[in-house]
Design goal:
This protein starts with a helix and ends in a 6-residue tail after the last helix. It is 62% helix and 0% strand. By secondary structure, it is an all-alpha fold.
Length: 114
């Protein structure tokens, strides 16, 4: 291993672990945003109108609980949060900031790329 490569190895390790820590922090923040703004309508417990509406829509073909979904596109999450859909209200940037929206997208979307 060259002297330069040996010198870069610790930097690369720090970048990899730093990125993983940032990703974990973003996912944690996404979960917090979901629990604060979304869970009352989209939770997996009885009486949540968003989950009930999705149960009717999907008829068991997809999970109605958003946290169980593995097919939510990032752009769809962004669109629905900012513009609403059906009985779901819009969320302004003063409610869910762009940074918090990206954390929520990272938490829910299967194709999120920072």
């Amino acid at each position: 291993m060259s002297k330069m490569a040996r010198g870069l190895a610790p930097v690369m390790v720090a970048l990899i672990f730093g990125t993983a820590a940032m990703s974990q922090d973003r996912l944690q923040r996404g979960k917090e945003v979901y629990d604060y703004w979304c869970i009352n309508c989209h939770g997996s417990f009885p009486g949540t109108p968003g989950t009930q509406a999705l149960e009717v829509l999907y008829r068991g073909l997809k999970p109605a609980d958003l946290e169980e979904r593995t097919d939510l596109p990032a752009e769809l999450v962004r669109l629905y949060v900012r513009t609403g859909v059906s009985i779901m209200p819009t969320f302004r940037k003063t409610e869910i900031s762009d940074e918090d929206l990206e954390a929520l997208v990272a938490y829910l979307a299967f194709d999120y790329e920072p």
